[in-house]
Design a protein that fits this description.
single chain, 350 residues, alpha/beta, 10-stranded mixed β-sheet, two-stranded antiparallel ribbon, binds glycylglycylglycine
């Protein structure tokens, strides 16, 4: 039997608490040997403890093999003492790369022939947290360092190399706006081109971010790996998700040296919360990313296959035009996993 997988599970707020820990039922169906420590973070945690990311949560996350994060939506106005728990977790755990795949899905409206990976810098850029009031307005600092740019670029090229070994083209598109942001994106661009020289077999191209947004919508099938600074990557990955079924299906992996943090891309969706109708597929895909990045490719593929089959022929939540509940979709995926499961994986293995 494989080593016990120690998970820190942070449901967060809103639909995050309806999706987690419920989605871990898929790990039971896969026969994965795991333990889950449930932890608090988000607005409710802030109201209760005065901290959106309590110290105990951060410590347990540091100690876990992997972190599964649900969803939060931080207030859009300033609240004294509040910090975004997901942005803080990414920074505290130095999870410097946010990997966001966008792949065609068997659902209405998904564009065919899309299989791309957005590699978003996760620790600096416009999310550096350096904002201050000045004059009659405010200033946000966009921080770009050589260290962070080189390591994110290398991560992108490594991903392109790995994907090339699986039959993808092996191409990295560097996204920037160095013609205007000459210093910050000048550094990002130069570092990405420097990293490119270590990966001779990988094709490299550049796109200005505005042109990239337009090309992504017109011809998403031509992109393989896309590397971008924090905000550009955040926006482009939501665009990419919209092309292949929407945020209800999109997941990401936050990676650094250790541990790994996976999450659905969507937020806590306060308008949907409490109805039991949130789409669990993004959270389940996040679990598949956890397995894939944890060196458990066979189980990741089984989960991905079950998700595709459930999307093709199973019940669908309202975001995909159906009327099914979260629980019904989850049950369909788990039934799919249990059908044809290897004998030792037929039941819970905790
Ligand atoms: N599952 C990721 C998530 O909660 N996304 C929404 C998000 O990034 N929110 C930032 C925040 O509310 O602090």
């Amino acid at each position: 039997m494989r080593r016990l997988l120690r998970l820190a599970v942070i449901p967060g707020d809103g639909i995050g608490t309806e999706l987690l820990p419920a989605a871990l039922e898929a790990f039971d169906a896969l026969g994965i040997h795991y333990e889950a420590k449930l932890l608090e973070a988000g607005w409710e945690a802030f109201e209760k403890h005065g901290d959106a990311l309590p110290g105990a949560t951060l410590e347990a996350a540091r100690d876990a093999d992997a972190v599964v994060f649900g969803a939060v939506s931080s207030p859009s106005h300033s609240v004294a003492g509040y910090r975004s728990p997901i942005v803080a977790l990414r920074r505290e755990l130095d999870l410097y790369a946010n990997l966001r795949p966008a792949v065609s899905a068997p659902v209405p409206g998904s564009r065919p022939g899309v299989d791309l990976l957005i590699v978003r810098e996760n620790t600096e850029g416009l999310y550096s947290g350096r904002e201050r009031e000045e004059g009659d307005g405010a200033v946000a600092e966009r921080v770009v360092t050589r260290r962070a740019s080189l390591r994110i670029a290398r991560r992108a090229f490594e991903q392109a190399r790995r994907r090339r070994s699986l039959g993808r083209p092996g191409r990295v598109t560097i996204v920037h706006k160095a013609n205007v942001l000459r210093l910050t994106d000048g550094i990002f661009r130069a570092c990405a081109l420097e990293a490119a020289r270590e990966f001779a077999e990988i094709e490299v191209e550049e796109q200005l971010v505005d042109s990239m947004a337009s090309r992504l919508i017109r011809e998403p099938g031509r992109f393989d790996v896309v590397v971008a600074t924090n905000l550009f990557g955040d926006i482009l990955s939501d665009v990419a998700a919209a092309l292949v079924g929407g945020l209800g299906l999109a997941a990401s992996a936050n990676v650094g040296d250790r541990p790994l943090l996976v999450e659905p891309v969507h937020g806590s969706a306060p308008d949907l919360a409490g109805k039991g109708m949130a789409n669990p597929i993004a959270t389940l895909r996040a679990l598949a990313l956890l397995l894939a990045h944890g060196g458990r490719d066979a189980e990741a593929e089984r989960l991905e296959r079950a998700l595709d089959e459930a999307l093709r022929s199973g019940p669908r939540t309202p975001d995909l035009g159906g009327t099914a509940t979260t629980a019904e979709v989850l049950a369909a995926v788990c039934a799919e996993l249990r059908r044809g499961a290897p004998a030792e994986a037929a039941g819970p293995a905790r």
